[in-house]
Structure prediction request, 202 residues.
Amino acid sequence: MFTGIVEELGEITAVENLGDASRFRLRGPVVTEGAQHGDSIAVNGVCLTVVEHEGDEFTADVMAETLKRSSLGALAVGSRVNLERPMAVGARLGGHIVQGHVDGTGQILARTPSENWEIVKVSLPADLARYVVEKGSITVDGISLTVVDAGADHFTVSLIPTTLALTTLGHKQPGDPVNLEVDVVAKYVERLLGDRAQGATK
Prediction:
């Protein structure tokens, strides 16, 4: 489990095509400290498994299904990525509960700068809109953010200077893809209420 608090802005240093998968080599001095084979690291919000670790770099295999359902397939050598290690038991939950299981992708639609922050508008797949509410939580490229405005096909978030400086959202432009993970609590509530409604009609 992750929290959506990005630990560092890493970089893709190599991409190997494996046919039905890709192997990424990534540089991240913070997240590789003490890393071992089999550890999990979130890359732009996608939970990946460490295959090899050497120095400040690690490799991870990305299956075709993940490449298709996330924005990782658009990454290339030199791409910057958000990196986060799983939350340690007993640690503070600074963001919200993030599984590292991407629900869909959106696109940056617009950026509106202000003196001390920036409003970013992101497209929202129709099947995810019901899980996104004003002042609720959403994960964008692995970043835990608070929804400012929730529409039928978009939402907005307000980014502080720290987020702009230390994550991919400081660099992405309109048209760029982003990974989205909605609040898992909303999905469980929907399922429980649906089961209760079905039980009442039997």
The chain has three helices and twelve strands.
